[in-house]
């Protein structure tokens, strides 16, 4: 009886899904675009839990398991430009759950992601991923997003950038002090681990205002974990946090990693509550008239800006003005997403930048020339050095931009229109105006856009010089990044997203990257780590293949086998 009931339920569920799939397929075909059939969508929550059980699917004969690639939000990281070569810049992923128009066409990206009016909204399943500490600037839309943006953007002023520059240089010097006198061999896994720690140390000082970063490893009264341990464990298991944070189960029933994750979330929340309360209670450092004057941390700058908004809310009739300040949970939510972005972008980008430099010694020499011309070995005020050095590092910035072009941290971000919205797309039969209905999703394929032939014949090659132009008026080199708009014939570049919702911490990551590179490359040369009996050519082929073919998405770009390639740091 039970077996019959289960079989009947399974048959009914299958019938419902097939009916929805056929309906979605008919809708997808009406768009006059190539359609890729996938039996499940990465937007289905249960699939996130059970997907690893189907890892055997890609090994099916006759390419029957090709659909499995598209069933994770980060599939473009592994796919690169392969799907675009097969289907073009626009195609549809059709599943029983939804239709996703996947695009890397500049005009479509411009229309959907930079539209000034709020006609398009991010899918809730994506926008709410990182809200376990509170709503934030990445999870909100419309007027709510503007309220979050107004407070948070004030934390990223030039004083904060100066602190980032100085602290990143100091922490990199501390890292260099641990290296042997002449050279150090590191697998790319070792590179990642080293920069994980460095990024955490910089965040601890700049974000939380810890005067001594050694204090990050201490467990104060009332805590069971240090700030560094709780923050680090969440950063390294953030997808587990997304999936299991809301799980309400006794600790005895949870595996060890989930118990520690639960404790880490609780501890980090407590640390943020204490730090925010400390800033709010420090009245001498805060006044409405002086709310933005010389904050000592990003957190303090954010709290001061929020207190100013709170004061304004109190002095203006609430009937005439919506609340403009953030609640405590919203402050915690924004603090966390800045932690996540600051940690992942730095560690991931550097993990790829070093082997790229090792593979291209000519580029490394080109960047070293810039660093040696604009820095000195004399001790000085690192924070003040920011204003005299950072503006003169376009080549170093180009290195970061090119690394992110080839190893971007972004998944397939989705949007859907609030009302039926017409857009122009290039189809196999030519340019066509189609209408996107609410519920139909549009996803920006950043990886395909970054590898598009629009970049030139060398689109899939590493060359930071593509971002450098000479200013005709001054004769100096400057960074030039492709932008959407005008005729939209050029390439799309979007590692920090595009449009008004571009990452507010973009410059934070750029300043930190350049500071680390200045310290590292001034004294050390990066070379390939060769295996026993391996020639230079064989090592280059092996490392290049790892970087091209073994990327996967886990909040940022990671390598499946980071121990399969490595670098040597050799003192100049």
How would you characterize the overall build of this protein?
The chain is of the alpha+beta class and 572 residues long. The chain folds into two domains: 2-133 and 411-452, no CATH class; 148-409 and 479-491 and 494-571, Cytochrome P450 (Cytochrome p450). It is 47% helix and 12% strand. Strands 1-2-3-9-6-4 form a six-stranded mixed β-sheet. A hairpin with a 4-residue loop joins strand 2 (90-94) and strand 3 (99-103). Helix 8 packs across helix 9 and helix 14 packs parallel to helix 19 (506-523). The chain is globular. It starts with a helix and ends with a strand. GO terms for molecular function: heme binding; iron ion binding; monooxygenase activity; oxidoreductase activity, acting on paired donors, with incorporation or reduction of molecular oxygen. InterPro entries: Cyt_P450 (IPR001128), Cyt_P450_sf (IPR036396), Cytochrome_P450_monoxygenase (IPR050121). Belongs to the cytochrome P450 family. Keywords: Signal. Residues 1-21 form the signal peptide.
Distance from first to last alpha carbon: 77 Å
Number of helices: 20
Please bin the fraction of helical residues. 40-55%
Oligomer: single chain
Say which CATH homologous superfamily of the largest domain is assigned: Cytochrome P450
Brief characterization of the structure:
One of its GO terms (molecular function) is monooxygenase activity. This protein is of the alpha+beta class and 572 residues long. The chain folds into 2 domains: 174 residues, no CATH class; 353 residues, Cytochrome P450 (Cytochrome p450, Orthogonal Bundle), CATH 1.10.630.10.
């Amino acid at each position: 009886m039970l077996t019959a009931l289960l079989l009947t339920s399974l048959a009914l569920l299958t019938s419902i899904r097939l009916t929805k799939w056929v309906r979605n397929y008919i809708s997808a075909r009406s768009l006059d675009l190539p359609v890729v059939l996938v039996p499940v969508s990465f937007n289905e929550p249960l699939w996130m839990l059970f997907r690893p059980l189907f890892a055997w699917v890609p090994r099916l004969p006759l390419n029957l398991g090709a659909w499995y690639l598209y069933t994770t939000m980060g599939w473009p990281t592994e796919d690169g430009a392969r799907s675009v070569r097969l289907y073009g810049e626009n195609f549809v992923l059709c599943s029983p759950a939804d239709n996703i128009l996947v695009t890397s066409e500049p005009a479509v990206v411009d229309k959907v992601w930079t539209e000034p009016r709020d006609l398009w909204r991010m899918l809730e399943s994506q926008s709410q991923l990182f809200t376990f500490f509170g709503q934030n600037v990445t999870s909100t839309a419309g007027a709510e997003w503007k309220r979050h943006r107004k407070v948070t953007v004030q934390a990223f002023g030039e004083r904060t950038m100066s602190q980032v520059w100085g602290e990143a240089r100091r922490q990199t010097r501390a890292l260099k002090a641990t290296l042997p006198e002449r050279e150090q061999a590191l697998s790319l896994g070792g590179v990642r681990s080293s920069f994980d720690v460095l990024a955490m140390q910089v965040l601890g000082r700049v974000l939380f205002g810890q005067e001594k970063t050694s204090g990050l490893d201490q467990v104060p009264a009332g805590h069971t974990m240090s700030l560094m341990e709780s923050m680090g464990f969440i950063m390294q298991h953030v997808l587990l946090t997304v999936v299991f944070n809301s799980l309400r189960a006794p600790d005895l029933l949870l595996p060890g990693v989930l118990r520690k994750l639960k404790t880490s979330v609780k501890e980090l929340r407590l640390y943020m509550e204490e730090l925010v309360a400390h800033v709010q209670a420090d009245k001498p450092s805060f006044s409405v008239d002086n709310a933005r004057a010389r904050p000592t941390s990003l957190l303090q700058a954010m709290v001061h800006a929020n207190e100013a908004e709170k004061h304004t809310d109190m002095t203006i009739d609430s009937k005439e003005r919506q609340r403009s300040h953030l609640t405590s949970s919203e402050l915690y939510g924004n603090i966390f997403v800045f932690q996540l972005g600051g940690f992942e972008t730095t560690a991931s980008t550097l993990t790829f930048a070093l082997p790229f430099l090792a593979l291209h010694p000519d580029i490394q020499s080109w960047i070293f020339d810039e660093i040696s011309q604009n820095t000195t070995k004399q001790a000085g005020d690192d924070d003040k050095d920011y204003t005299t050095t950072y503006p003169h590092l376009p080549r170093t910035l180009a290195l970061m931009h090119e690394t992110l072009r080839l190893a971007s941290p972004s998944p397939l971000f989705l949007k859907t229109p609030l009302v039926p919205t017409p857009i122009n797309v290039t189809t196999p039969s030519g340019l066509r105006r189609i209408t996107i209905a609410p519920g139909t999703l549009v996803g920006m394929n950043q990886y395909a856009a970054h590898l598009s032939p629009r970049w030139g014949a060398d689109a899939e090659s590493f060359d930071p010089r593509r971002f450098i132009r000479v200013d005709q008026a001054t004769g100096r080199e400057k960074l030039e990044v492709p932008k959407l708009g005008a005729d939209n014939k050029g390439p799309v570049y979007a590692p920090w997203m595009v449009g008004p919702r571009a990452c507010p911490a973009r410059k934070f990551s750029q300043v930190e990257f350049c500071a680390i590179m200045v310290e590292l490359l001034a004294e050390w040369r990066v070379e390939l780590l060769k295996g026993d009996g391996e020639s230079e050519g064989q090592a280059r082929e092996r490392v290049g293949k790892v970087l091209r073919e073994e990327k996967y998405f886990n909040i940022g770009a990671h390598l499946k086998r980071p121990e399969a390639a490595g670098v040597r740091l050799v003192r100049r």
